[in-house]
Amino acid sequence: MDRLLKIGLSFSASVYMFFVVFNNLFDYDSNYQFINHIASMSEIFDRRANAWRAIQLPVFHHLMYVFIILWETLILLLLAVGTLQMIKNINADSITFEKAKVKSKSGFICGVILWFVAFVSIGGEWFLMWQSQKWNGQQNAFFLTICFLLFANYLNNREIV
């Protein structure tokens, strides 16, 4: 049952990441506007004190957004391949199954890095995203950080033999 739960978490997260990447590619402009407003610091409380950090270059906003999409695609691929490796080794010995979890664990940790570093830290604190009523994604980023961290932690648990 433990192996099925680990496969299920990895599969569920890979499905989620598929939709994230799909939406970012097929609704590029909506999601690009998020990056544009956050990096431009368009809705911060005190522009005189903090706007020096803002980046007004659209080319930089596109580069940031493309980097995020590529990182999300990496997460998707790691989770999908990890899921398939765990399915392939579901009846294998403990050591083999532990090795099969590596890609999924890496995918979960890459998710934690994405949402905590890019969104909570850089977006939230450097670009003061938390000050925006419309463009504040901190709650969602924190939620995803915690989910992926919990999934990684559960996947990291070894089987009791």
Q: Could you walk me through the main structural features you see in this protein, from its secondary elements to its overall organization?
A:
77% of the residues lie in helices and 0% in strands. It contains 7 helices and no strands. The protein has helices at residues 2-26, 28-40, 47-50, 58-88, 94-100, 102-126, 138-156. α1 runs antiparallel to α7, α2 crosses α4 (58-88) and α4 runs antiparallel to α6. The radius of gyration is 18 Å and the shape is elongated.
Q: What labels would you give this structure?
A:
elongated; mainly alpha; 7 helices; 77% helix; 161 residues
The sequence of SSEs as H and E is HHHHHHH
Query: Strand count, sense and closure of the main sheet?
Result: none
Topology, number of strands: 0
Kindly provide the radius of gyration, computed on alpha-carbon positions and rounded to a whole number of angstroms.
18 Å
Q: Which band does the percent of strand residues land in?
A: under 5%
How confident is the prediction overall: mean pLDDT? 93
State the end-to-end distance: 14 Å
Helix/strand class: mainly alpha
Low-pLDDT ranges: none
Per the principal axes of the C-alpha atoms, what is the gross shape?
elongated
| Helicity, as a percent range | over 70%
Give me the number of helical elements: 7
Write the topology of this structure:
Elements: H1 2-26, H2 28-40, H3 47-50, H4 58-88, H5 94-100, H6 102-126, H7 138-156
Could you write a compact summary of the structure shown?
The protein has 7 helices and no strands. It is mostly helical and 161 residues long.
